[in-house]
From TrEMBL:
InterPro entries for the chain: Chaperone_Skp, Skp_dom_sf
Similarity remark: Belongs to the Skp family.
The species this protein was found in: Halpernia humi
Record SMART domains: OmpH (SM00935)
Signal peptide from the UniProt entry: 1-21
Protein name per the record: Periplasmic chaperone for outer membrane proteins Skp
UniProt GO molecular function: unfolded protein binding
Length: 165
């Protein structure tokens, strides 16, 4: 047993000597991004774009809703064959609306990606510059649920300064 503990201690010492000490910092990513004027402007533009697309979809859904209501009211007085045709027509219209809704969601996602890309690039460049200037190997998001280590220096103020915030 004593030999095993000595061997274990030797292995631990070898690993600790062989490992380079990592310099780690944490920062409030959401806090920094919320202060960037470009992000605020992009959020407003994307919100307006999303609302316009939603209004467009609602406008396109109105004829479907009107026809569905009409068919539902008239169904008891119609024959089974007529009701079946109307049901098929409504299903076709619903399918078209779903296709359009998927296209709208894709448009909004593409617009979001394109709008945030330059903001992310600017933010990442500032983080890279601050990390290199201070010799940090890692900077973790202080708000991340998978935060491993937060006792290091906080880079938030330096990144804000680099961005002029």
């Amino acid at each position: 047993m004593k030999k095993l503990s000595v061997l274990f201690a030797a292995v631990v010492m070898l690993f600790s000597v062989g490992m380079k000490a990592q310099k780690v910092a944490s920062m409030d990513v959401a806090g920094v991004l919320s202060l960037m004027p470009e992000k605020k402007k992009a959020d407003e533009q994307l919100d307006a774009y999303s609302k316009a697309k939603q209004a467009e979809m609602q406008k396109e859904a109105q004829p479907y809703q009107a026809i569905a209501q009409k068919y539902q009211e008239e169904a008891p007085t119609q024959t089974a064959e007529v009701n079946k045709k109307r049901e098929a027509e409504l299903q076709k219209m619903q399918s078209e609306l779903q296709t359009k809704a998927a296209a709208v969601q894709k448009d909004v996602a593409d617009k979001t990606d394109a709008t945030y890309a330059p903001i992310e690039a600017k933010f990442n460049a500032a983080v890279d510059k601050v990390a290199k200037a201070n010799g940090w190997d890692f900077i973790f998001d202080a708000n991340s649920p998978s935060l491993i280590y937060k006792a290091g220096p906080d880079a938030t103020a330096l990144v804000k300064k680099e961005l002029g915030l």
